[in-house]
Design a protein that fits this description.
By secondary structure, the protein is an all-alpha fold. The chain folds into two domains: 82 residues, no CATH class; 187 residues, Hypothetical protein af1432, CATH 1.10.3210. Helix content is 63%, strand content 0%. It is built from 17 helices and no strands. It starts with 23 loop residues before the first helix and ends with a helix. The relative contact order is 0.12.
Length: 315
Amino acid sequence: MTKPSADRSGELAALWLPGDPDDSGAFEAERSLAAAIAQVEGLRPFAPAAAKLMSILQGNPGDPDAVRMVLESDPTLATRVIAFVNSDTFDAPVRCRSINHAIRLLDDHQLDSFAITMANHERFHEAEGPAAEIVAHSARCGTIARLLADQGESPDKENAFICALLHDIGKLLMLQVSDDLTGEAGSDPYLALLERSGGEPDRLHPLEQELYGYDHGVLAAHALRSWSVPPPIPDVIAFHHQPAMAAKTNNKVRTLVAFVRLADQLSYLDVQDETLQASAQVDDSDASLLGFDGSAIDAFWRNNRHLVATSAAHD
């Protein structure tokens, strides 16, 4: 059974539907995933400049001259980097007026995070209906993941933010290619799956696996790899509904999966309910892995729910 070229081997190989290679169900699931990968790889990927910037920044440290050349090759990206450095969010001590100055003020992780955020915005900023809801939810999860990482003093807070921001990109891809996968124009079984899941954590992916043989995390991981998004991001996206499998990879992936999962669970809570006990609504294993006990989760939610509400208002 031949896997599609998008599979770069490694951890993602474990996500192919389990079963004997000769099992017809496994074969059909693999063929279905191969067809979906072929569809999403043909969609407009991240802007070339953003993809190249992400690749360069995987160096330790990144090459400032190479970063400058990439940013100068894309006026839109360059303008947005300078605007970000001059925003209240970044709170730079001095006014930034050049790319060189912006590079000196931003570290590699911040630039990497910015590039992926902007690329994601470019792809889906005109989303409507269910897609717009997914984009808003993803932005909210990104905000929560970054706040969690800040409180836990995680050295990987930028990746926590990026992974949470992109964790549901597979749903958006499925919405874009659903008609093609069914072969029926105007037929969209994926919308029906979204409705059946009720918009709650960990309810959609079993329905996807039942219908397609794979879930949105696996599809997104293959697409992100084909668009040159660097590790560990695709791996974390692939496993965000499979924490037990993530635990078999490495500590970095499992920790980032926990950030994504915990942020996802918190994102569904009612920010207006002052009496809500957040710890009763989340998976203890994800919280514990990140060093949060029940009282810490409740304190985090009390102290940050207004920031989450602000994020939701601006999604």
